[in-house]
């Protein structure tokens, strides 16, 4: 009599065990590759946000002008740095759809530590009564640490300088040589330097 051939119970159990091990290894590899892909996407998103914020600050720095503002009837300096809040006048704004709108604006950088966000507030006019509502936008998110200073050329934590005559309009129209932003985003520290186009300083240098 011929004996029928087939798999024994032990062989089936061994095959199932091998399949389970291979499946577990395959799932670990897939999960690892998936996490790498997610980290790469997050890194690209963070890098894109950093680049956009840097470019926006660069555009603002190139348009900062030594123009005083009139806030509630008082002359405000062209650039103010006080308690980490940076406020400045900028010019060169053009909008073909907004006929008659002056090319000068007042911009403010304000950091909210509780939200870990750096905000950009924009006022369309240098002359303000205090009732105008600025256009607010988030310049950068996930900001764990933030610090701003002016360079003249030494690093200063406030502007105008304490030695300047507060009642002198000419002093209020002066700008520092540059600004420096130090920030930490997603555990990585950055330091951004921007040179300011100070027309008064350039005129003095041209005379020399």
UniProtKB/TrEMBL annotation:
It is a single-pass membrane protein. Residues 33-60 form a coiled coil. Keywords: Cell inner membrane, Cell membrane, Coiled coil, Membrane, Methylation, Transmembrane, Transmembrane helix. The keyword Transport does not apply. The lineage of its organism: Bacteria, Pseudomonadati, Pseudomonadota, Gammaproteobacteria, Moraxellales. It is found in: Cell inner membrane. Gene3D superfamilies: GSPII I/J protein-like. Belongs to the GSP J family. The keyword Cell membrane applies. This is Type II secretion system protein J.
């Amino acid at each position: 009599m011929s004996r029928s051939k087939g798999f024994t119970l032990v062989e089936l159990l061994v095959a199932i065990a091998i399949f389970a091990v291979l499946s577990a290894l395959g799932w670990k590899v897939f999960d690892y590759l998936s996490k790498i892909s997610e980290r790469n996407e997050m890194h690209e998103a963070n890098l894109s946000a950093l680049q956009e914020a840097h470019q926006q600050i660069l555009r603002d720095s190139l348009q900062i002008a030594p123009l005083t503002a009139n806030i509630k009837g008082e002359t405000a300096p062209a650039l103010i740095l006080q308690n980490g809040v940076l406020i400045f006048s900028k010019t060169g704004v053009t909008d073909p759809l907004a006929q008659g709108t002056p090319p000068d604006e007042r911009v403010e950088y304000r950091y909210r530590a509780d939200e870990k966000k750096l905000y950009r507030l924009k006022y369309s006019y240098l002359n303000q009564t205090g009732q105008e509502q600025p256009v607010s936008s988030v310049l950068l998110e996930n900001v764990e640490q933030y610090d701003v200073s002016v360079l003249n050329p030494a690093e200063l934590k406030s502007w105008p300088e304490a030695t300047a005559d507060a009642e002198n309009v000419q002093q209020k129209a002066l700008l520092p040589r540059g600004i420096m932003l130090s920030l930490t985003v997603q555990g990585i520290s950055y330091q951004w330097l921007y040179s300011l186009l100070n027309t008064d300083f350039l005129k003095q240098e041209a005379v020399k």
